[in-house]
Amino acid sequence: MNDSPNDRLVLPGELLGTAEEFVPGRGTYEDGGRIYAALLGHARVDPKDRAVRVEALNAVPEIKEGDLVFARVDEVKSAMAVCTIIAVGSSKRTVPGAPEGTVHISKAKDGYTDTLADEFQPGDVIQARVLQTGSSIKLSTATLELGVVSARCQVCHAILTTTGKELTCPRCGHRERRKLAGVEGSGGPTSSGPPPDRDRRRERDHGGRHRR
Ligand SMILES: [Zn+2]
Predict the structure, then answer these.
(1) 69 C-alpha to ligand 1 centroid (Å)
(2) What is the pTM of this model?
């Protein structure tokens, strides 16, 4: 067996080498001059500093452009919804570290969105596509299959039940709108451009709860 632990799959507690050979790095520990793997993963030696690291096999899934994610909506602003990404992929691998993602109003649905609060509300869980990664993760729900998968009543916080395109609270009867995943024409009214005049806005303002 090669005595270098490089790229070898190692078990927790497995000897990687001595403290004379290597510097203990992430995912390792030193005991009595020997370095051991602290977790299951691949051992890697950095040739520059001789640091040995173990990269966990079930590592934090990296979020990439094009990935499908599940995210919880934390805040709905006038131009964007701020979310916490909680899982990635269809296998719903959880994402530690609570990375932030945002859905811009132009990416909420196909067509023009007038009021983002007609599409999402805090506490909702959405399924979204990653448009861009980096310091902030930009998300889109602008296709039919994407959008809200679980919505909370804004009055009593119960999980809303879907009735066609509308959502109804089974506890208090409150009715709400969302851009629902897989439900065509759900959410707020869609048009191909900004409303031509302010009268249209007033017509469909329901209560003015989210107006600035
Ligand atoms: Zn309710």
Answers:
(1) 27
(2) 0.64
